[in-house]
């Protein structure tokens, strides 16, 4: 058995409010615990999207009632909310800009709107972006121009990872994440999954792109699942929405890569704990860890998943490594396939009062 810190997933979609037929705070955070994650950062492309004080409190109310692990909620950048978003920065995981078309209504097209957000969001806090190709290059330009931390979500291609490398070499304050599906699936998966089931933003890339991600591991700051559940019926419909669930398969896939000599355990800890904690300035969870059996061999199947969407693009894959136990703030919250965390026991890591009382950053 090996002991690891509670993992941090800086990119999940929990679908509440609005799309609880796909997922909600309870089911999504139960999936997190089952996957070894004790902190999730929730994306703002809900219905309604989280863009102001009112919608933030709607999301946080649902989180307060449902969350089983600790969390923080992103604010989404819209055309009109730069000032309002800036004022909510201390209550948010971060600010999220969608610079390309993806799932949901949040897409920022006008450069003037990007500029307003880059100017209004506090300089020391990160801005996270969905940006591919030329949008990525433009976002990196803004990071330099505004001299501020910028986190680049789900990098998936050779061109993009090399762009991130060059930006870092130029001293820009950029960090990036890569998803397990972009590391362990490629465009050939379209054949057996089918186009709808394989649909994800950014799309599954060529084997050469995937190899480039592995070759540039040193540039990758975080592994983030981009857990983006949609129902099987939606994925199999004529208009399949993009996205995969990922919380319950990430760690076994990464541990299997350790076994194959493609990664080390330290690579995982750095990218699933140390770096996301540093980038998003998250507090340390005391008396929190996970216990993993690295030798447990099993086949990924859609059965027994905690996520409401109840399917996975990795079905049929043989993996090594199983989460046996998760301890969150001294409580056993997951053990041998059973989630034990009481619904609503997760904590909002951006709650002012908690930070005020514990200035050492501990919760
Ligand atoms: C995400 C979703 O469904 O919310 N989908 C996806 O394919 N990644 C949106 C996103 O992260 O871009
Ligand atoms: Zn995205
Ligand atoms: Zn996402």
Provide key terms for this protein:
alpha/beta, TIM Barrel, five-stranded antiparallel beta sheet, binds zinc ion
Summarize the structure in words.
This protein has helices at residues 25-34, 53-66, 82-87, 111-120, 134-146, 158-169, 180-184, 189-193, 207-215, 232-235, 250-259, 265-279, 352-357, and strands at 2-5, 7-12, 37-42, 70-73, 75-76, 95-98, 127-130, 150-152, 174-178, 222-223, 289-299, 318-328, 331-335, 338-339. Strand 5 (75-76), helix 3 (82-87) and strand 6 (95-98) form a beta-alpha-beta unit. The model has no long low-confidence stretch (mean pLDDT 96). The chain is an alpha/beta fold and 363 residues long. 33% of the residues lie in helices and 19% in strands. The protein has a 6-stranded parallel sheet. Strands 1-11-12-13-14 form a 5-stranded antiparallel sheet. The site of one zinc ion (ZN) has 5 residues, from loops. One zinc ion binds next to loops.
Shape, per Cα inertia axes: globular
Q: Name the poorly predicted regions.
A: none
Oligomeric state as shown? single chain
Cα-atom radius of gyration: 19 Å
Q: Indicate the CATH architecture.
A: Alpha-Beta Barrel
Write down how many β-strands occur, each being a DSSP E stretch of 2 or more residues.
Answer: 14
Number of helices: 13
Name given to the CATH homologous superfamily: Metal-dependent hydrolases
Count the domains: 1
Tell me the distance between the termini: 27 Å
Main β-sheet, spatial strand arrangement: 5-6-7-8-9-10
Helical content (DSSP H or I, runs of 4+): 25-40%
Strand content: 15-25%
On the 0 to 100 scale, the average pLDDT is: 96
Most strands sheet: 6 strands, parallel
> What name does the CATH topology carry?
TIM Barrel
Order of helices and strands: EEHEHEEHEHEHEHEHHHEHHHEEEEH
| Ligand identities | N-carbamoyl-L-aspartate, zinc ion
| Structural class based on helices, strands and sheet pairing | alpha/beta
Q: In CATH's first tier, which class applies?
A: Alpha Beta
């Amino acid at each position: 058995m090996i002991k690891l810190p509670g993992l941090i997933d800086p990119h999940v979609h929990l679908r509440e409010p609005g799309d609880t037929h796909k997922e909600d705070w309870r089911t999504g955070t139960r999936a997190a615990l089952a996957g070894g994650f004790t902190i999730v950062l929730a994306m703002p492309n809900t219905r309604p999207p989280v863009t102001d004080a009112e919608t933030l409190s709607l999301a946080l109310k649902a989180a307060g009632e449902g969350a089983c692990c600790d969390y923080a909620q992103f604010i989404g950048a819209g055309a009109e909310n730069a000032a309002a978003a800036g004022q909510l920065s201390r209550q948010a995981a971060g600010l999220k800009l969608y610079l390309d078309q993806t799932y949901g209504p949040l897409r920022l097209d006008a450069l003037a709107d990007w500029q307003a957000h880059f100017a209004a969001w506090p300089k020391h806090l990160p801005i996270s972006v969905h940006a591919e190709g030329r949008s990525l290059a433009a976002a990196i330009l803004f990071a330099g121009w505004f001299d501020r931390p910028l986190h680049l979500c789900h990098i998936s291609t050779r061109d993009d990872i090399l762009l991130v490398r060059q930006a870092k070499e130029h001293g820009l304050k950029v960090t990036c994440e890569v998803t397990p599906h972009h590391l362990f699936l490629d465009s050939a998966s379209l054949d057996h999954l089918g186009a709808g089931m394989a649909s994800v933003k950014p799309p599954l890339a060529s084997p050469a792109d995937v190899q480039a991600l592995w070759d540039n591991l040193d540039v990758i700051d975080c592994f983030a699942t981009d857990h983006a559940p949609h129902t099987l019926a939606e994925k199999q419909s004529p208009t399949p929405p993009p996205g995969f669930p990922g919380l319950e398969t990430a760690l076994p896939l990464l541990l299997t890569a350790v076994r194959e000599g493609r990664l080390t355990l330290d690579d995982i800890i750095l990218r699933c704990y140390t770096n996301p904690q540093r980038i998003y300035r998250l507090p340390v969870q005391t008396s929190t860890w996970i216990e993993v059996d690295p030798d447990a061999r099993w086949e990924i199947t859609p059965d027994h998943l905690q996520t409401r969407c109840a399917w996975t693009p990795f079905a049929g894959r043989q993996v090594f490594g199983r989460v046996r136990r998760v301890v969150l703030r001294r409580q056993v919250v997951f053990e041998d396939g059973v989630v034990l965390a009481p619904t609503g026991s997760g904590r909002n890591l951006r709650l002012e009062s908690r930070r005020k009382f514990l200035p050492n950053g501990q919760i």
